[in-house]
Amino acid sequence: MKWNKPTKQFQASRRGTSLVHDYYFITTIGAGGKGWLVGYRGFSTQIVMHSAGIFESAQEARKYCEGLDRKTFIIEEVRAVV
Question: What is the pLDDT of residue 32?
């Protein structure tokens, strides 16, 4: 997964480089806050994954997103055979 140019408060993966979601993002808590939250683009909005916890560094948060993307499997369609 490739990431766009990092900023101090928000970073996002490049569209089309992740396997599961449109893109992942990491963001600081508040303006210049301590710690990073992770999330993804889904259901036409950005969803913060509070359950993932708070990461101390942007590098840790990006690594979490990359690992999650490798391990996640989404079923898009199920067809019944008659």
Answer: 65
Q: What is the mean pLDDT of each run of 10 residues along the chain (82 residues)?
A: 88 87 89 85 90 93 94 81 81
69 sits in which H/E element: helix 58-71
Strand partners, 38: 26
d(CA 11, CA 3): 7
- Between CA 8 and CA 27 the distance in angstroms is 9
CA 18 to chain centroid: 9
Rounded CA-CA distance 55/26 in Å is: 10
Q: What is the DSSP letter of 50?
A: G
How many CB atoms neighbour CB 81 within 10 A?
3
